[in-house]
Amino acid sequence: MTLNFEIEKPTPKNCSTNVNSYLEFTRCAIEMMKIKLIIYKNMLCIIHCKAINCCIFKLPNNKIHMHNIKTNFDKFLQLITKNAKDLIMEEGNFKFYPKKPKMSDCEILALSLCSEAMSIDSENYFWGKIKSQSTDFPNLIDRSNYNRRRRNLIGFYNQLTQNLADQLNEGENIFIVDSMPLPVCNIARANRSNVLREDFETSPDKGYSAITKTYFYGYKLHLITSLKGVYKSVDITKASVHDIHYLDDVKQSSLNNCTLLGDKGYLSSEYKVDLFHTSKIELQTPKRRNQSDFSKYPYVFAKSRKRIETQFSQLADQFMIKRNYAKTFLGMCTRIWGKIAAFTLLQAINHSNDKPLNQIKYALL
């Protein structure tokens, strides 16, 4: 497509050259060239946008599914009803209610996981967005009722996550264990903070992070994943609990007949022998250089452990797992389990769409 512009040249009245006319002609030619460049530039933008099926004139009318709450809610609700059908009693509920609730338990879970997957950490903001789309959620319940029922469904978060993880981890026999700090507040405010102190057994305390080489006040998240980065087991302990004591809980989990990769925090010959005799778990950790039987840690194991470090970064950045708005220990656990369930759900969506498993930012596109 070519654009032709004919510029009418001024005709001098006399044979002598009219300087003013030539100056006017030059000015008109420059203006027309500017218009021509602008038109060509706009044409190239339109052609480029059509090539990616995203014409610039249609952008304002398009809905981006990643930020569409109703679209993501329907997607999560379908996955929950499909993977938790053995747990559902009737009308989408996991337990019996004498009076039929406006929103089912599956819808409560879908709404909670939707906010976590969309990185909406402020419940006040999320609830405001839902109320602005009241036509999409005609059975919306009161916010306090929603929070109460969500805390009561914490056990079903774990069962749903376990069902999805078992499907994704089928055939896996090598797993990774590690921990990350979950600060409750700044350590300078630890002595006067009353958050999560309703019970001594579950109250936070001070611990040390070997990665940042700093002390913090809160809890530790212990996580076991496969080499793919899919959840296998999770637990929360006080910050002062050493990583190696989590191996006692590993014996009670469903983990057996496998290899478990850990860092130097899990180095113990006693625990290594105990895990192998009780659950046939082979614990592989790097040795300290001052040990008599020191040998270099295999490169393949060191490289494989980076997967769980990346997963901790995703949980901290996209899911903001280190931010705490809970006032009770049960409320904090509900938030943590919800974030891990949403992470696993996004991995399942990527798996069903033949996408890279851990590119969770693009799972909802």
General description of the model:
By secondary structure, this protein is α/β, with parallel strands linked by helices. It folds into three domains: 62 residues, no CATH class; 90 residues, no CATH class; 156 residues, Nucleotidyltransferase, domain 5, CATH 3.30.420. The chain contains eleven helices and six strands. Strands 1, 2, 3, 4, 5 and 6 form a six-stranded mixed sheet that branches. A hairpin with a 4-residue loop joins strand 2 and strand 3. Helix 2 crosses helix 3, helix 3 crosses helix 11 and helix 6 packs parallel to helix 11. It is globular.
List the helices and strands and how they pair.
Layout: H1 19-51, H2 69-83, H3 105-117, H4 123-132, H5 143-152, H6 154-168, E1 174-185, E2 205-209, E3 214-226, E4 231-238, H7 247-250, E5 258-261, H8 269-279, E6 281-284, H9 299-304, H10 306-317, H11 329-352
Q: How far do the termini sit from each other? A: 35 Å
Using only C-alpha atoms, the radius of gyration works out to 30 Å
H/E element sequence: HHHHHHEEEEHEHEHHH
Q: Helix- and strand-based class?
A: alpha/beta
For this structure, the CATH topology of the largest domain is: Nucleotidyltransferase, domain 5
Count of strand segments: 6
Number of helices: 11
CATH architecture annotation of the largest domain? 2-Layer Sandwich
CATH class of the largest domain: Alpha Beta
Low-confidence sequence ranges: 1-10, 12-17, 47-65
Main β sheet profile = 6 strands, mixed
Fraction in beta strands: 5-15%
- Integer tally of domains: 3
The helicity comes to 40-55%
Q: Estimate the global geometry from the Cα principal axes.
A: globular
Mean pLDDT across residues: 84
